[in-house]
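Weekly structure sync, notes
Attendees: PL (lead), two postdocs, one rotation student
Agenda item 3: pending single-chain targets
PL asked that the sequence for the first pending target be pasted directly into the notes so everyone works from the same version. It is reproduced below exactly as submitted, 82 residues in total.
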Amino acid sequence: MTIFACFQGEQAEIVPDASGLMREFKFGSKRTIPFTVGFLGRMIFSCLVDADYKDTEAFYNASRAGRVTGIGRACRRFCRVS
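Predicted structure, written out during the meeting:
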């Protein structure tokens, strides 16, 4: 069965087994749960901000080097391909 089987009328479900990637997360005692959840939230948010910063930095570096296509040129290329 291919990955595009769902488009061919077959039922396909892809479920990766990620059970061994991360050990069980323990929140700790009732007294420390608010701190643990808050800290986890801050770490996740920090990862998202860093990822966005890296993506923005890559975009601006490409535009300075002249590798970014303007919107007008991109629209003309899209219309020509479609």
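Discussion points:
- The chain has two helices and no strands.
- Residues 33-64 form the longest helix (32 residues).
Action: rotation student to compare against the earlier draft before next sync.
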